[in-house]
Design brief:
Elements: H1 3-14, E1 17-22, E2 28-31, E3 34-35, H2 53-74, H3 83-96, H4 98-101, H5 105-112, H6 116-124, H7 127-131, H8 133-145
Antiparallel strand pairs: 1-2, 2-3
Helix pairs in contact: 1-3, 2-3, 3-8, 5-6, 6-8
Length: about 150
């Protein structure tokens, strides 16, 4: 998979902030959607604390590695899927996390069957679609394009 492309897509979808802030779920966050964990030095710092570009890059790299590991957990054949499907799934995993994306059982079934149209329908038929409609529509359109013969 083209990791640079994934990084670019996630940066565009998540944005990048060099201060700590509260995300839509009211959790302390910084950088490119990095959820601050208890193990992070930023954990007890107030909202608005500056975070260096190096720290943002370090956390983003770690988050991407975690996401790819989670993608392989959910899809043992992850790297045998078309690259576009890998990028879409990784984007969703970054946004939702493994516990939530694991609940997309019908989507997973259709991805496993390489039925991209039905996988896209399942993505559309979700709470996630209503929560992040712009991002979801882009990813759904890309999933549907996998069904189009070249």
């Amino acid at each position: 998979m083209n990791i640079r492309k994934l990084q670019e897509e996630l940066t565009a979808d998540e944005g990048c902030k060099f201060v700590t802030y509260r995300c839509s779920e009211d959790k302390l966050t910084f950088g490119i959607g990095h959820l601050v964990l208890e193990s992070d030095p930023e954990y007890n710092l107030p909202v608005g604390t500056a975070v260096s570009a190096d720290r943002v890059a370090e956390c983003f790299d770690q988050d991407i590695q975690s996401v790819l590991t989670d993608c392989e957990r959910l899809y043992p054949d992850f790297y045998s899927l078309p690259e576009e499907a890998q990028l879409i799934i990784a984007n969703m995993m970054f946004n939702l996390g493994l516990p939530t994306l694991s609940k997309f059982k019908n989507m997973k079934k259709y991805v496993d069957e390489e039925d991209w149209e039905m996988a896209a329908n399942e993505m559309e038929n979700s709470r996630w679609f209503r929560q992040v409609p712009n991002r979801a529509e882009r990813l759904i359109d890309r999933m549907r394009m996998l069904a189009v013969p070249f």
